[in-house]
Design goal:
With about 210 residues, this protein is mostly helical. It has helices at about 10-35, 45-50, 55-60, 65-85, 90, 95-110, 110-115, 125-145, 155-175, 180-195. Helix 1 runs parallel beside helix 7 (about 110-115) and helix 9 runs antiparallel to helix 10 (about 180-195). The relative contact order is 0.10. It has 10 helices and no strands. It has a single domain (about 5-200), classed as Tetracycline Repressor, domain 2 (Orthogonal Bundle).
Length: about 210
């Protein structure tokens, strides 16, 4: 039986209130990050926009920086779960499925991802996102193409793919997500499949 069934009604109500409070703070943080640098955001204006008193904010966070760190970790941890459900090197799964899930993830977390990836975004978030994608790509390409004649090529190809991926994420969000996650995944998959022919070259050209 689900352990949730054993949780008391007051505890469940408290959990629901915490979730609503944090959701309101997340949305307010995201909207403020679209307007100004994080360093310029104050607890007063954040809580005012979220319609939450400052005492409630301090129950959950020490300051704005602490909130940014916690939100960043939560989003990236959830993104890691998406990546880790795909095992290209084991199953031979095409990138399309993972790409679909990544774009769906961005769609579900659109407001905070737009804030983190935007003009006044969070450089640490982008760096960690890039590293997570890069680790996944390097691992997969190395196992899919173990005998490439130039050992470092799969790593460089991974950088190419990850940089392109993040660029697609940013542009899709910035332009209002006019395409569906499935359309974006198909387009990205086709781009990467054409690029992947480079890895399938039997020998490098002479320079």
């Amino acid at each position: 039986m689900d352990s949730f069934a054993h949780t008391s009604k007051p505890a469940r109500a408290q959990n629901a209130r915490v979730k609503r409070t944090k959701a309101a703070l997340y949305e307010s943080l995201a909207s403020l990050m679209l307007e100004k640098n994080v360093n310029a955001i104050t607890v007063r204006e954040l809580t005012s926009r979220a319609n939450i008193n400052r005492a409630t904010f301090y129950i959950h966070y020490k300051d704005i920086d602490d909130m940014i760190c916690q939100v960043r970790k939560e989003v990236l941890d959830d993104f890691s779960v998406v990546l880790n459900t795909h095992h290209t090197e084991v199953s031979g799964e095409r990138p399309h499925s993972m790409l679909c899930d990544m774009f769906r993830f961005l769609e579900r977390h659109a407001s905070i991802c737009k804030a983190f990836l935007g003009t006044h975004g969070d450089a640490e978030f982008i760096s960690l996102l890039r590293n997570k994608l890069l680790d996944k790509c390097v691992t997969d390409w190395a196992k899919l193409f173990p005998s490439h004649p130039i050992a470092y090529v799969p790593e460089y190809f991974s950088v190419f793919v990850v940089t392109g991926c993040i660029g697609l994420f940013e542009h899709w969000i910035d332009t209002g997500m006019r395409q569906t996650p499935e359309e974006m995944a198909y387009m990205a998959d086709q781009m990467f499949r054409n690029g992947i022919r480079f890895l399938q070259m039997p020998t490098p050209p002479s320079f």
